[in-house]
Amino acid sequence: MKEISCKLLVVGAGPGGYVCAIRAGQLGIDTVIVERDRPGGTCLTVGCIPSKALIHAADEFGKVVRMSAGKTPLGISLADPKIDLKRTVAWKDNIVGRLTNGVTSLFKKAGVKTVYGWATFRDGKTIEVATETGLQVIRAETVVIATGSAPVELPSLPFGGPVISSTDALALQDVPGRLVVIGAGYIGLELGTAFAKLGAKVTVVEALPRILPLYDAELTRPVAKRLAGLGVEVLTGAKAVGLGPKMEVVRVETADGKEVALPADKVLVTVGRKPLTEGWGIEELVLDMSGKFIRIDEQCRTSMRGVFAIGDVTGEPMLAHRAMAQGEMVAEIVAGHQRSWDKRSIPAVCFTDPEVVSAGLSPEQARALGREVLTALFPFQANGRAMTMLAEEGFIRVTARADNHLVLGIQAVGQGVSEFSAAFSLAIEMGARLEDIAGTIHAHPTQSEAFHEAAMRALGHAVHI
Ligand code: NAI
């Protein structure tokens, strides 16, 4: 048995863990990171990145299909488009490969040692890793738990056979004829929309009364409209209860209490993710929990001295960029810097069609805090650039305190609005007031003018509406 020791040990090389290790290495901390798979975690290998590749390919294909059907006003026509999903998936895998190799090189550059294998805690300072070449024991002064999360399985529809997780969906070699998606959250709608564009007949089953229940109805209306336009059937208030006897149908209990049988070649179950708190010896540690997550303070410290936790294992929102920011902060704390979690905005983006982005509070959430608010939206229908891109669906909406005009939240729905997440978060982090946005020149002609106009409208003097 081999033994090594280090100052900092990071368990899990997802976005939280790998950023933490690289930053620690840059700061001269003797760092080891343990990972059972390739570096990059869910996000890079089977989540954010590969899904965005598939979504992009589906968008491109969807466009040419519309053109071939003579459904575009642009005057472009072409004949009989086809997609070879095997090649699309190979292209996507190549992107993932380049990025995981990139992370490996960054580890080297920062002087981070990597150990590949499954880690199990013996105590708060010691782990053992089952590597290909035998058991490796690692002792560390400080440990960071960054074990991430895993898809939730439905007891009535366990993964296997036609029932697939998002990981399986991203590796399909052929477009399923009929795809039933259980759960109209982030993953279900992002992938469901992509497969509809690729030619599958998609039905989405959602237990709650509306799609993307995390967002308000005004924001999700354009998404629901587009799903209908793509021929996606959405059953809300409905629950999947199991497969039919020959696994060729999904049995669903609809809102009015009836049971229907939906024919399906594949059933994609996307009903949330759960923190990965099992299988790595959490019982050997004395950690306070917060529900199913590991409880942390504003420095990502757990209840055990010298043990930090970051990323999905520590709570909502389970987003890669939250984990990265926590990872960077923890590395700096270990290096002796004065840091604590003081973020005002963790933007959330849903890569549906159209895209949805949210930073800060919605008008409803702001009012629920007892605030009097000013809120206004500017529709892309009145934005010249949006018209030239066939992107008139959607809007940008701003909410601010009525007394001092401090911006509390900004949301948008529309084509390509994900890239606004930076501008929105910057405004909130910098403590912008409506006047700051209204007083900033926004380039013409761009969709960003809708941000400018929404702020002016909240102040009562929009120009273009
Ligand atoms: P989710 O929590 O976003 O949505 C799950 C949906 O399934 C909910 O609407 C829920 O009401 C529904 N549901 C639960 N049980 C059901 C049942 N038996 N029958 C029908 N519907 C049922 O979870 P999702 O989409 O799996 O995503 C997991 C996590 O991954 C998210 O929390 C998110 O943080 C992250 N993610 C982020 C993305 C992004 O930032 N763009 C993209 C994909 C995932």
Describe this structure in words.
This protein is an alpha/beta fold and 465 residues long. The chain has three domains: 4-50 and 87-150 and 274-334, FAD/NAD(P)-binding domain, CATH 3.50.50; 163-271, 3-Layer(bba) Sandwich (FAD/NAD(P)-binding domain); 348-458, FAD/NAD-linked reductase, C-terminal dimerisation domain (Enolase-like, domain 1, 2-Layer Sandwich), CATH 3.30.390. The chain contains 13 helices and 24 strands. The strands form six sheets. Strands 1, 2, 3, 4, 5, 6 and 19 form a seven-stranded mixed β-sheet that branches. Helix 3 packs parallel to helix 6 (186-198). The protein is globular and about 70 Å long. The termini are far apart. The mean pLDDT is 97. 1,4-dihydronicotinamide adenine dinucleotide binds next to helix 6, strand 10, strand 12 and strand 20.
